[in-house]
Amino acid sequence: MAATAVHQLAQCITCHAWSPDQTMVAICPNSNEVHIYKSSPDKWEQVHVLQKHDQIISGIDWSTGSNKIVTVSHDRNSYVWNQEASEWVPTLVILRLNRAALCVQWSPKENKFAVGSGAKTVCICYYEQENNWWVSKLIRKRHNSSVTGVAWHPDNILLATTSTDGKCRIFSTFIKGVDSRDAGTTSSSELKFGEQIVQLDLSFSWAFGVRWSPSGNTLAYVGHNSMIYFVDDVGPSPSAQSVAFSDLPLRDVLFVSERMVIGVGFDCSPMVFTADERGIWNFVKLLDQRKLVPSSANYGSQLSGAFGKLYGQSKHISNDTVEPSRSRAGVHSNLITSILPLKVVGGAVKRFSTSGLDGKVVVWDLENQSEFSL
């Protein structure tokens, strides 16, 4: 069992984020508020409630360098929160959206953040020093449906997105005056803002969580068809693989190292995927060992396996090995909505956290497990 701490902070949590020193956690309890908890020796104490949005908050991110919190909501707005003395002061970001904002993430250098929306639009927001406000540039007419996930490449220029049109796309977000030409790779820094590098048509269903590996050489994203996709050599001729599994679909992913990924979602337990010496990705195990009891009814497993094989038959490499169906009664008892790294040593994640619709924030420790030494 890898879970080291379980915190019941609400009845339901849509997303969460940690402070730079990881002594505080901000959660969105499926409402228009952000609740910030501070750790104490025997419990977590609520110290702040951020109230400004009119509808459910769908995304939150806490910058590690500047200690700023960014939130987005179904009310189509975004706020950047700055801590002044003991208070958090919000600054409105004009997104110019006509549909809900769905996800948000700070760039690695924290001079920009990206917002995905139900308006088929991605907003790249940055601070304009002259006018003392946050402004946005929009990537339009590229997506055919809602943008469900955004992920920054380590070079601070490239941005990957997922959408309910089933596609994953990669764009340049170079902004003159904000980014320098030597900020990213030679190719990415020479591209214009909003220019699409590649469109990946691997999924036959909605696509959700997306993440880059620490080096930026590999991209992983998930589909609502119980499949996860891995892409190497992102560009005109990418190398892609798909892994099908019998369990329920994933919603978010995290690279533990260059050769290991953890996915979370509807199955309520983190799933581990690894790449072998040949670079072939495979499903390894569920982290929550209490969920390894086979279900008495295996019809669902057989049906899921059949669909996994069907979806795996494509021009890219496919691994469609399916496992027996399992009961779902572990640390999390409902959908896991997000996964975040907590402790990184030498580029490898040693501790991470998950939050779910069961209202829990769970901390998972990988340090003492030999199978996570990749």
What is the number of independent domains? 2
What structural category arises from helix and sheet content?
mainly beta
CATH architecture of the largest domain: 7 Propeller
For the terminal residues, how far apart are their CA atoms?
19 Å
* CA radius of gyration: 20 Å
Give the CA-based shape: globular
Beta fraction: over 45%
**What are the segments in which pLDDT stays under 50 over at least 5 consecutive residues?**
295-318, 320-325
Oligomer: single chain
Which class of the largest domain in CATH terms?
Mainly Beta
Tally of separate helices: 2
Mean pLDDT: 87
- DSSP E strands, number: 29
- Helix content percent band: under 10%
Largest sheet: 5 strands, mixed
Name of the CATH homologous superfamily of the largest domain: YVTN repeat-like/Quinoprotein amine dehydrogenase
